[in-house]
Design a protein that fits this description.
Chain A has 294 residues and is mostly helical. Chain A has 7 helices and no strands. Chain A folds into 3 domains: 86 residues; 48 residues; 72 residues, no CATH class. Chain B has 2 helices and no strands. In chain B, helix 1 runs antiparallel to helix 2. Classes of the chains: A mainly alpha (294), B mainly alpha (53).
């Protein structure tokens, strides 16, 4: 301010008064201030507009990046949820497929069985088995008679009383023959048994002719209830066993006689007969020999 | 067709309300059952002696 006042003073030393100068100075100062304020306001507005634009751009970028991030995250969440739901749905599908394939199959079989049983019982009630049997028998007999007529060249004219009697007579004869065969079979069986027994006795008696009584009794007792083939197979073995045991007993007696055994003070052992059934053939002979007390 | 298969078909047709086909299946099953009974009956001895019983 002082510069403009000094300048005016210098330019108009003699023209302007001090008051005029002050007024000019005031006006000039006001005008300058007004201009300065206007310019400052314009500059400020321009700066604000520029800042707004920059901030808008930045905000848009921020929003875009936030959107992208959220979209990405949401996509991941959706994928995870989808996978989880898919897995669960697959489990449900598997479970129901199992139920359909196994449980439903069992149920289906049960239903089929039940329906089948019901139909059986209904048919049994409506058409009894006895009726079916009777009808079948009649039909078969009718067919058989038809075939027989054809075979014997007997037509309905010839199927008279005499033919019927002949057929009945044939049936009677067959029944009688059947009874005779049954009786003969029984008789034959009895005769075969008797023959077998006789052969057995003959074989034993022939072989034990030269044996003493004790030995003969032992042989007879041993082979009671045995068949002929068994006796033939085991006769010599049994005789040898008997002889061996007899020889052993004799040796023992001889030894006792040699040593002059005092029998007065001897303690007699009570021999108990065992009633156990021998299991093998050898045990059987040993048992029999022991029972003989040789 | 097997008898069980026929019964399955019968049940299936009844469930589907296909009564015409169900009727045919039922007839077939009953015929089959009767045939079996008759076959069983024909295996009996025609000249079965009364004394054997």
């Amino acid at each position: 301010m002082s510069k403009i006042t000094d300048l005016l003073k210098e330019v108009s030393k003699d023209v302007l008064t001090e008051e005029s100068l002050e007024q000019i100075e005031t006006v000039f100062t006001e005008a300058v201030n007004t201009k300065a304020e206007e310019r400052a306001q314009i500059t400020t507005e321009a700066a604000l507009a520029t800042q707004d634009d920059e901030h808008s751009v930045k905000l848009e970028q921020l929003l875009e990046s936030i959107d992208k991030d959220h979209t990405k995250k949401l996509n991941r969440v959706v994928e995870a949820v989808d996978k989880d739901r898919t897995r669960k749905l697959k489990n449900v599908i598997r479970r129901y497929q199992t139920a359909i394939n196994e449980e439903a199959t069992g149920l289906k079989d049960t239903v089929v069985e039940s329906v089948s049983d019901y139909l059986d019982s209904y048919i049994e009630e409506s058409v009894p088995t006895a009726s079916i049997d009777k009808a079948t028998t009649n039909k078969r007999a009718f067919d058989l008679l038809k075939d027989m007529r054809k075979m014997l060249s007997v037509d309905m004219v010839l199927a008279n009383e005499s033919i019927r009697e002949a057929v009945q007579d044939g049936k009677r004869t067959i029944d009688e023959s059947r009874n005779v065969v049954k009786g003969l079979t029984t008789s034959n069986t009895e005769l075969a048994t008797e023959l077998q027994q006789t052969k057995k006795d003959l074989f034993i008696e022939k072989r034990i002719g030269q044996f003493d009584e004790k030995k003969s009794n032992f042989i007879r007792k041993t082979f009671t209830d045995k068949d002929l083939s068994f006796i033939e197979e085991n006769f010599d073995y049994t005789v040898n066993m008997f002889d061996k045991k007899a020889q052993e007993s004799l040796d023992i007696l001889k030894e006792e006689a040699i040593h002059e055994t005092k029998t007065q003070d001897a303690q007699v052992e009570i021999v108990k007969e065992s009633s156990d059934t021998p299991k093998s053939a050898v045990n059987f002979y040993a048992q029999e020999l022991a029972n003989m007390r040789l | 067709m097997d008898q069980k298969q026929q019964i399955r078909s019968l049940v299936s047709n009844v469930i589907d309300k296909n009564y015409a086909a169900a009727n045919m299946d039922l007839k077939a099953v009953v015929n089959e059952k009767l045939k079996k009974r008759i076959e069983k009956s024909t295996k009996n001895n025609l000249f079965k002696n009364e004394q054997d019983n």
